[in-house]
């Protein structure tokens, strides 16, 4: 039996199908929770953010359709923004700006599934093709819970510049990711 | 291809566009493959994190909260005379999480409060004028699953002034099908009385609260059976969980 698409499940959720919501939850629980844990550094906060995301999905806040890109990307954006808000509300001390090393791994890390491993390798590989500055932008925007305004403030760069740097970083990430996914191996010398 | 709209991508991802701008940008997104592909790539970013196991019970809590809203919109009519009623709502909500009215979680919280302070029962029961020095005795027992059955449970029995309050909470139960219910019984010398029934939640948990105004029986056993239907006055199904209780308590 072919796996039902996210978009179709989402349609059913809009029709108040609880099973469809549960299926979407099951599909993305681990991915989003892992991401939110890394971003917030706090399991409870991560759970709270994840709950907000699914409450919004259920209530049809900011409804999704395929013209907005992949469903999972839409979920990731919602998750990021939920976490950014919670971090701000909690006035949680943010990780120092110069520390762009990996956040120490959470103690109860679980074994990577084959799918996770493959996805993880691809995105890590793609990120390695970004310049240091671009990697930093991705880190700050997606993993440190900073808004573009905060980045501008803390780095002393104009907001417009920050936005275009993040955009450029993500654009390059997209290109290198596509090449990794399609070609398997990426030629380092190739201009992206 | 960069136009004015493309420049709004980061504001869009940051959730800082106003309603009109948001709509405009979404229209742009539908027509700009580059912006859409960039958005799609961000969907892979979580895989930069190490996989983390979900918090215990997280799924149940989140789905409870998600579906909670609409259940509260449908008022549940409670017959005031019914004796086997669900556990009363407790106010202890976990930080930031909304707890729906009758979930086993609440029952579990109530159970904890019972153990901590049997007097707390007065605030939760129908007796506003509780005597100042009531004779209260309480006992808790762990329910054991019978062979061939799944599940665990706890029963709390509180005796006060000749009345008996009973709270049973069970989890890891097998789902019921059709009209099946889990039925709780109190037994003395093998003679049972029904003390409430429940069907397990999606998380395979259930709870029941029961009170007897005059209890002189000295029950020796508590049991949970899986009945083919609700309302049986004697067990037809098999015992799933059970425990001996102290008749003198
Ligand atoms: Zn565009």
Write a concise keyword list for the protein shown above:
heterodimer, A: 192 residues, mainly alpha, Arc Repressor Mutant, subunit A, 2 domains, 8 helices, 67% helix, 0% strand, B: 249 residues, alpha+beta, nine-stranded antiparallel β-sheet, 27% strand, elongated
Mind explaining what this structure looks like?
The complex is a heterodimer of chains A (192) and B (249). Chain A is mostly helical and 192 residues long. Chain A folds into 2 domains: 1-93, RNA polymerase sigma factor, region 2, helix turn helix motif (Rna Polymerase Sigma Factor, Chain: A), CATH 1.10.1740.10; 113-185, Arc Repressor Mutant, subunit A (Orthogonal Bundle). Helices cover 67% and strands 0% of the residues of chain A. Chain A has 8 helices and no strands. Chain A has helices spanning 6-14, 18-40, 43-59, 71-90, 114-128, 132-143, 148-155, 159-183. Chain A is globular. Chain A starts with 5 loop residues before the first helix and ends in a 9-residue tail after the last helix. In chain A, 42% of the residues are buried. Chain B has 249 residues and is of the alpha+beta class. Chain B folds into 2 domains: 6-48; 83-244, no CATH class. Helix content of chain B is 25%, strand content 27%. Chain B is built from 6 helices and 9 strands, in the order ααααβααββββββββ. Chain B has helices at residues 9-13, 19-31, 33-42, 58-73, 104-116, 120-124, and strands at 84-85, 136-145, 152-160, 163-171, 181-188, 191-198, 206-212, 221-227, 238-244. In chain B, strands 1-7-4-3-2-9-8-5-6 form a 9-stranded antiparallel beta sheet, covered by helices on one side. The model of chain B is unreliable at 74-103 and 114-134 (pLDDT under 50). The interface between A and B is large, with 73 and 47 residues. The complex binds zinc ion. Zinc ion (ZN) is lined by residues 5-6, 28, 32, 34-35 of chain B. Zinc ion is lined by residues 5-6, 28, 32, 34-35 of chain B.
